[in-house]
Every structure is written in structure tokens, then in C-alpha cells.
Amino acid sequence: MLLFLYTLLLFHYLQTKVNTLCRMMADPKHPLLSKDGDVTIGGIFAVHSKLALSSFEFREKPQPLSCSRFVKLKTLRNIRKYDLLSRIKFYSMASSNEINRSEGLLFSMNSTMALMNGSFKIPVSATCDCLSNRKDYPSFFRTIASDYHQSRALAYMVKHFGWSWVGAVNTDNDYGNYGMNIFLNTAQEEGICVEYSVKFYRTETEKLKKVVDIIKQGTAKVIVAFLTSFEMNNLLEQLSVQNITGLQMIGVEAWITAKSLITSKSFRFLGGSLGFAVRKINIEGFSDYVIKEFWDTAFPCSQTERNSSQYALNCSGYQDLLPLKNYNEDVPEQRYASNVYKAVYAVAHSVHSLLNCREQKGCEKGLTIQPQQVSNQFNPVGYYDASLPPDQRFVLNTENIIWVGGQLGPRSVCSESCPPGTRKATQKGKPVCCYDCIPCAEGEISNETDSNNCRQCPGEYWSNAEKNKCILKAVEFLSFTEVMSIVLVFFSMIGAGLTVLVAILFYIKKDTPIVKANNSELSFLLLFSLTLCFLCSLTFIGRPTEWSCMLRHTAFGITFVLCISCVLGKTIVVLMAFKATLPGSNVMKWFGPAQQRLSVLAFTLIQVLICVLWLTISPPFPHKNTKYYQEKIILECHLGSIIGFSSVLGYIGLLAVLCFILAFLARTLPDNFNEAKFITFSMLIFCAVWITFIPAYVSSPGKFTVAVEIFAIVASSFGLLLCIFVPKCLIILFKPEQNTKQHMMGKASTKSN
């Protein structure tokens, strides 16, 4: 594809009746084609590119182009089409003929606008954003949008595909430098990192080699090439020499649709390239007009004239071109021609408005039209429309894109995206697009790709295993389904079952001396309280509720006081019994069965009163404890009042110590009636268990606190059951000969002697 750079220069030319034939003007070194009229619109065009020159064979002394004949061509079959496409640009200016036929655009003044070559600097490229400065270029008008929009659109396209790590190459002139500078600024705004930004000019061969070396050593797979077709061709040649493939090229209008760049060698570098191109021509009747005009001028031969003498004279050397005479498929590819067409109309309408102003009231007398007074309207280029809202400016349909190498699409990133559950940590000394993915800490999540920070989960939530979602914390309590709970329940039920069996055995043997000798009523009450002690441990297992929290501690406190009160009563009975054997002693009448029952009731009522006060003032309640574990919630029973709980335990401890002292004092009494040493051992075990319970209770977290409390209850209950009742059961079951009154009295007499 040829590259055409357009600049419109508007001028008036005063003339009387004119000859409509084309003629040469000005210095032959700067040839101009002109047609006389009231208002002349001047246009400057590049009619060939560096690539096309290889197809031309100029005469020894270059001759200017004329309306009737193009330069002689060496290979007519290959080049005639090129001449046609080049000439389209000139024929686009012929839209002035349409304007002259339009009644609405006829001009009524005979002023002159002179084209002074020395008054204008022709820009290198008409798309360069540098030319937008009206102060420096007051007479410059565009037939194509500024590179400002194209450069920004390139950055948006790169971001659209997720290419955060790209390389950039540009032509080292105003066109490339201004365009690349806009792209780099926009890329930075959009969070795109540029691994390198290099430039070269078409004559800088060594610099080009360095540029290619940088591309080869880089890791970016996407290259934004803000180059003219000259530099792009040079770059492709060097990429081919060094066999650098696998790059995704992003191009600009200067080369993205240039067919001349596509060869069998270059396609492996350009295949799948993306970029913004000038819109195709779409002018009704234009194709037929261009084809007819060109062939009638440059090739005045036809199939019907083959037998004429004129045909033999003029057309004998062009016989092979006859099949191509109606070829017009490439006309729509001349994208810039439509811009020339529109520009001519835009200037004509503007001049028409200005000239009409002179005929209207209030217009300035002697109006002089300045070039900068003529305005132009820009149309969207490609798929990018800067006039729309930001979220609607860039529209891209990727369905028909053929990616380089047939991939689903290249990836060009310095670091792979950080998945949810991680955060980005910039690598030291590298751009922000180069980072490490750091897993979120416990209790933190990131639920987006490439998250810069992890956020803390709220109070009762915790991060899941993937750290990408906050989930409710696991609620922990000692449930009946846990192994530890099953073991504790098993021993609790065994203890309760054994206690019931002992009670049954004692009831069966209630009339035997060994059951009567140690106050059978207190024994049965003690067995009942021990059963409750074993069973109350079950209230500590399961999900804590308001009622279960109040029940577990009060039931434990009351049943244990009842148990210790019975043991204390039995100890006192033993002491009183031996005191009563002394001559003149009448102690037993003061501590008979009624007094024993009353003492147990009194001791128990005191504990009941403590519990009532505790429950009234500050009862236990379910509490979600997050102190020990951040990742889970321990559902426990808060004590409510520490004083209330301490009072319950302290009262139990007081009775236990008193019972231990009395039992210890009675341990030397005769064996026949002496239960004191067994009570001493039971109280020793009881006190040892509960003394060790305190530090274990304080230091055990969560459900283990409850397990320690259950263990203390079960262990102390087993201590009482085994130490007090097992010896009697052994005698009842295995030594019935000792379960007689004579044996017990005789043994007592022997010992007394």
C-alpha cells in the first residue's frame, strides 16, 4: 500500500475566461498540476513510496508528470495497476467538478487566493499531533484525525487484551516521537508497563541493529510499532535476519494496511498484527470514474479496435493489459482518497459560508479570508471514537482476529496475573508490572485477580483455604460426636452404672451388719448424690445454651456439696460412735439419724443459696470466645460472676478439707467400725484432683477447658465410690463370713483387750 500524506492549501486565484486543459506551472523541480477556476484548492501528494521506486524505470532526466501520460514503466503488467492506484489520489481532487456543478456551492466573488510556496512549511506527516498547534501552523488543515486519538486508542487496545508488558518502537521524527509520547503517557495512565522504548530513523542502520537486539533480549511479546512504512520495512528485514519470531505487532495507520510489506518472508512476523487503519473509500460512482478516466488517458485502446491501423500504431505493445482494463477491486483499498474527497467538500462548504457572509448585513467590509478561518470536521477512525463517553470510545470485535501462530491470543506480561487469594508485591528495582504473588495472611482475602492488597475478614468471619472468600468461622464446642466426648461420656455412664449397682447391692443387703454399721441412710444418700455427680458431667457436653450454662455449674455445685455433706456426716458418725463407747458418754443422742439428715440438708442449702444468688446477680451465659483462636470461635459458657463461681468451688473445697481433717483424726480407730481411713483416702484423691484442676482449667483453651472440668468431676466421683464402697462390696460378695455381728463385735473385743 502507498502512503499518502495530505495537506490542503486554500487559495483564491483571480482569472477571467480560462482554458480547462491541464498545464505545467512553477519551477519544473516542483511540478504542479492545475486547472483554472474562480477558487482553486491546492493539494500536495506523495505519489510513490520507497518500496514502489524499485518498480519504476525513470528516464535519464526525470520528467514531470502530466495529465495525459505517466512515467514509462519497465514492467507494464506489474506496474500499470500501481499507476492506477497512485492516480486515484489526484482524481479524488476532481470532486471539485461536482462542486462546480452544485448550485448551492457556486461562488459570486472574483477574489484571488495566492499559493505562496515560501509562506508554508509542509509537514512531514499530516497525522502528527505536533501540527495541532494553531499558533505555529495557522494554515494547516487535516484530512485525517490527529495521532493523539490513534495513540490513545492503541493503549486502550493493549489494555483490552490484558497485555501489561509491551515493547515500543517508533520512527525518530516528529511523527513517531509525538505519537509514541502520547502512547507512553496513556499507557502509564492505564497501568501498562513498557519494557523498553526505542527509536531509529531509516538511515540509521547501526541503531536499527541495536533496536533489534533490545527486542531480542526483551521478554515482552507485544511490540507497539509507531513507524512509517519505510522504518517498518527495515525493521522486518532485521527481524528476519536474526530470526526473531513469536511477536505480536501492534501497528499504526502508516503501515498496518500496507500490502507492500506483506511477503512470504515477512508474514511470519506480521501475521495476526493489529492496528488502526484509515476507513475504506465509499464514494458512489468514484470507482467507475477513476477507471474510465485512467484507461482513456493512459491506455486509449479497446477490444473493438483491434483491426484498425490506429490500434496497431498505439496499442501493439499493450495487448497483455486488455484483460485488466476493467479491474477496480483495489480502488476501495485507497483509504486516504476518501479523506481527500471529504476534505475538498469541507473546504468548499467553509469558503461558501465565508463568502456568503459578505453579502449579509453586519459582515465585515472588505472581508479577507485567512486559511485558519476554514474549518474541518473529523470523523471516527476505525473502531475508536473520542467523542463518545470513555466507556464507549473503544469497540473491538475479536471474533475474526487471526492471532500470530494460530494461538488464542499472545500473552505479554512481566509477571503472570496473581490469582484470587494473593496480592501483588512489586519487585525491587523493576516496574510496577513486575511483581511477586504473595499469599494473603490468615484471616485476609483477595477475591479479585491482580489485587494490590488483601483485606481483613470481619469479626465472625475467616478466610477459606484458598484465601479468596470470607466464610463464617468454625464454631467449636465439646460436642457428643467427638472422640474425647465419647470417652468422657463412657466413663461417666460407667461410674453412674456402678453407683446404681452398689446401691442395689446395699439395698439387697440392707439388713446385714456391714451395711447397718455405717449408717445405711447416709450410705444410700451418698450413692444417690454420686450418681448425680456422674450424670451432671453430661450437662457440660453439647452446644452451650443459656439454660445449659446455668444448669451445668449449679448442678455440679449442689450435687458435690450433697455428696461431701454425706461423707462428712459419715465421718462424724464414726467419731461419735467411738466416743459413745466410753463410760458415761451420751454423745450419740446429740447426733442421731435426725441430726445427721439435718446437717446434710443444712450444708446443701448453703450451696443452694450461693447458687441462687449467683444466678440472680450474674448468671453464666453462652459466649463466643475469639481470644485463643483467630480462625475459629469457641462457644463456651461464660461464668458471668467470677465471685459466684469461686464461692461455689470454695464452699465445696471447705467441706472437703473439713471432712479430710476429721477422717484423718479418726483413722486410728478400730477396724470394725473404722470407715475413716477409706474416707481419708477418698478425700485425699478428691482434693488432689481439684487442686490440679485449677491450673489446668485456666491454661486449657476452648473445649479442653470443659473436658478438664468433666474429668475432675468424674475422677473425684470415682475416688469417693471406690474408696468408700468397694471394700464393703468385697466383704458382702466375697467374704460373707465377716459380714456378721459376732465377727465385728468379737474383733472389737479382741482389739479392746
UniProtKB/TrEMBL annotation:
Entry's transmembrane regions: 483-508, 520-542, 554-578, 598-617, 648-666, 678-698, 710-734
Cellular component terms (Gene Ontology):
plasma membrane
Q: Which CDD domains match?
A: 7tmC_V2R_pheromone
The UniProt entry, under PROSITE patterns, shows: G_PROTEIN_RECEP_F3_3 (PS00981), G_PROTEIN_RECEP_F3_4 (PS50259)
Which Pfam families does the UniProt record give? Answer: 7tm_3, ANF_receptor, NCD3G
Report membrane topology: Multi-pass membrane protein
Question: Which residue positions does the secretion signal occupy?
Answer: 1-16
What does the record give under GO molecular function?
G protein-coupled receptor activity
The places in or outside the cell where this protein is found are: Cell membrane
UniProt superkingdom: Eukaryota
Concerning Gene3D superfamilies, the annotation shows: 3.40.50.2300, GPCR, family 3, nine cysteines domain
The segment(s) forming the G-protein coupled receptors family 3 profile domain are: 484-748
Q: Which InterPro entries match?
A: ANF_lig-bd_rcpt, GPCR_3, GPCR_3_9-Cys_dom, GPCR_3_9-Cys_sf, GPCR_3_C, GPCR_3_Ca_sens_rcpt-rel, GPCR_3_CS, GPCR_3_vmron_rcpt_2
Record's keyword terms, sorted: Cell membrane, G-protein coupled receptor, Glycoprotein, Membrane, Receptor, Signal, Transducer, Transmembrane, Transmembrane helix
> What family, per the record?
Belongs to the G-protein coupled receptor 3 family.
Q: What is this protein called?
A: G-protein coupled receptors family 3 profile domain-containing protein
Source organism per entry reads Cyprinus carpio
